[in-house]
Design goal:
Number of domains: 2
Helix content: 25-40%
Number of helices: 10
Radius of gyration: 24 Å
Largest sheet: 7 strands, mixed
CATH architecture of the largest domain: 3-Layer(aba) Sandwich
Strand content: 15-25%
Number of strands: 11
CATH class of the largest domain: Alpha Beta
Distance between the termini: 69 Å
């Protein structure tokens, strides 16, 4: 049987592919630059092909190198899954769990979940990464995340999906906005030119546009925000109105502002919060346990003093 490449060598190659810099890749792998370079050269010798083009200024992968990297990511993810399956077989929600969450969920849901989770499972070491949905899914598929907290609709056809709860959108405007006088807002009456949205890349932008129905092609705002807090500042500054998920309102995102939230007339537009993981992941039992824990904390009202929003004129 011919000598086979090692997972360590594949790890060096994948790291270099992501950074295209030998020094940075070596630092990320906690080895010297010469060790990483030698490991990749050994990999090229074993495979009998050139994987990386090098000169004094640039590093790039060859066509074969790109293909090897794609397959190496799958091998590394499978090896990690195997190791995690062995570790978690004895006791769930122990050891390291790498959780990704999108910016429109993480700061509004996790603060009420993580403290009791640490208390209930002190042996769990939770590593959190906040990022946009697309990048979280890429990391999940590559094996650098175990589970991700995202919102649907989104393409999850090849992933295990555990639904959590429905999160309705609310209309948000200044107190003196004429539209804010209504107890409920008919979404079909919104003027697309007045609605402020997050910039491209945020799934919340797509959810808000999709929620507005057949006029979605008209929702092209000339002013876009990079975050929810920036969006709120823009609305408070009189630049327009917006749609915010109920989750953010319950967390007090409008506190200290001159903005009010009004519910939409039924059927209210909404997103669905879910946990996603690879279907082959050995952590699927833990995904289920984590989902049940999140739902239990919501049932218990883990943020006392923040009342449930009612479908009526509401100032938050």
């Amino acid at each position: 049987m011919p000598a086979l490449p090692s997972l360590r060598q594949f790890g060096y190659l994948v790291e270099l592919a992501e950074r295209l810099n030998f020094r940075q890749a070596a630092e990320a792998q906690f080895v010297t630059q010469s060790t990483l370079s030698a490991g990749i050269k050994e990999l090229e010798t074993l495979l009998g092909v050139q994987l990386v083009e090098r000169d004094k200024r640039n590093v790039r992968l060859t066509a074969v190198g790109e293909e090897v990297v794609a397959r190496a990511r799958g091998l590394l993810a499978a090896a990690n899954d195997l190791a995690e399956a062995a570790r978690s077989a004895a006791k769930p929600l122990t050891g390291t769990l790498r959780l990704g969450a999108i910016p429109t969920i993480a700061p509004f849901l996790l603060p009420e979940v993580l403290p009791p989770l640490r208390e209930a499972h002190p042996s769990l070491k939770l590593y959190l990464r906040e990022d946009l949905t697309e990048r979280l899914i890429e990391r999940l598929r590559a094996g650098s995340l175990d589970v991700a907290l995202i919102a649907l609709p989104y393409d999850t056809r090849d992933l295990h999906v555990r639904e959590l709860f429905r999160d309705e959108f609310w209309f948000v405007a200044r107190e003196d906005d004429p539209a804010a006088r209504a107890k409920e807002i008919a979404i079909r009456r919104l003027n697309p030119g007045e609605v402020l949205l997050l910039e491209e890349g945020h799934c919340l932008r797509d959810h808000a546009i999709a929620a507005c129905g057949p006029r979605r092609g008209a929702w092209q705002s000339t002013v876009e925000a990079t975050s929810l807090h920036t969006l709120i500042q823009m609305v408070e500054g009189g630049l327009g109105v917006t749609l915010l998920p109920e989750l953010t309102l319950k967390a007090g995102i409008l506190k200290g502002t001159r903005l009010v939230a009004r519910p939409f007339a039924a059927p209210a537009p909404a997103r669905t919060l879910v946990l996603v993981a690879r279907r082959t992941s050995p952590r699927l039992r833990e995904v289920e346990l984590l989902a049940e824990f999140i739902l239990e904390q919501r049932r218990r009202g883990a943020r006392p003093g923040i009342p449930a929003l009612r479908r009526s004129a509401t100032k938050v």
